[in-house]
Design a protein that fits this description.
This protein has 272 residues and is α+β, with helices and mostly antiparallel strands. The chain contains three helices and eleven strands. Strands 3-4-9-11-10-6-7-5-8 form a nine-stranded antiparallel sheet, covered by helices on one side.
Length: 272
């Protein structure tokens, strides 16, 4: 005859709730030996399971840490990028929680690399994507035409934001060049669509918001919101001034940290 002897796993191994081992009644010694062997098998299996649990726990912890750290790393990298220099002439009011107030800014003169797209372009996002690639090629492989073959290859540092200017169905996508360059010291772009331009000092009203790369309806809604605030605070927009969109973060950044701005040319408050 045989009987079933129920044995429980150690309390520190909750994954193994119970097991059954068949023991013979013919010999007490045999029964004890079989019971011991069964316990050893249970302990071995429990240790294996615990190891898998530990590995899964560590992996989950690493993934969780990476997900939490990723936005912080992107934020820190963008923070370190050179940005256009400006002086705040006037602050109006914030348009949302954790957002800076609407500002009237006087930008310093700057040099930009710009690509223009006509009405055949399928919207602002398509223009931004194509323009970004064209200017990025110039930035990362800036050994331009007109230089000697043995000229030192120089990669221009990235800056932020990427800018888009909208007007009459056309789009102008640009990067501001690092301040150490002038239009004359920058390499000549290999892509003829990329134009190097000097931009004079100018005054813009800026409305900040967070989220994905905006589409035309989003930009128009923010523009109307900005115009209403400018009217409320007696700030005059420049007639016929083009709407501009500044995007400070890369496309792969989480939407909740992506800072964007809609800007309009305005008369300087000192002259209104």
């Amino acid at each position: 005859h045989t009987s079933l002897l129920r044995c429980s796993a150690p309390s520190s191994q909750p994954v193994i709730s119970s097991c059954y081992c068949v023991v013979s009644q013919s010999s007490w010694a045999t029964t004890v030996n079989q019971y011991i062997r069964a316990l050893r098998r249970v302990a071995h299996f429990a240790n294996m399971t615990n190891g898998l649990q530990t590995t899964a726990t560590v992996a989950a912890g690493l993934i969780g840490t990476a997900l939490l750290a990723w936005p912080l790393l992107i934020w820190n990298e963008v923070r370190k990028l050179e940005k256009p220099k400006y002086k705040v002439l006037k602050t109006l009011e914030p348009t949302g929680r954790f957002l800076p107030p609407v500002e009237i800014r006087q930008y310093d003169p700057m040099v930009i690399a710009e690509v223009t797209f006509g009405s055949e372009t399928e919207g602002m996002r398509a223009a931004l994507s194509s323009g970004f690639r064209s200017i990025a090629r110039f930035i990362f492989d800036s050994k331009g035409e007109g230089q000697h073959d043995d000229a030192k290859r120089e990669k221009i540092a990235m800056t932020s934001p990427v800018t888009a200017e909208m007007g009459d169905g056309s789009y102008k996508v640009a990067f501001v060049m690092p301040s150490k360059y002038t239009a004359e010291t920058l390499p000549t772009p290999k892509d003829s669509r990329v134009q190097i331009k000097n931009i004079d000092s100018h005054t813009l009203a800026a409305l900040s918001f967070r989220g994905r790369s905006p589409r035309e309806p989003d930009v128009e809604a923010r523009k109307q919101q900005l115009l209403a605030l400018l009217k409320k605070h007696d700030v005059s927009p420049v007639q016929g001034g083009a709407t501009r969109v500044y995007q400070y973060y890369p496309p792969f950044a989480p939407n909740f940290i992506r800072l964007n701005e809609v800007l309009l040319p305005v008369e300087s408050p000192s002259t209104t």
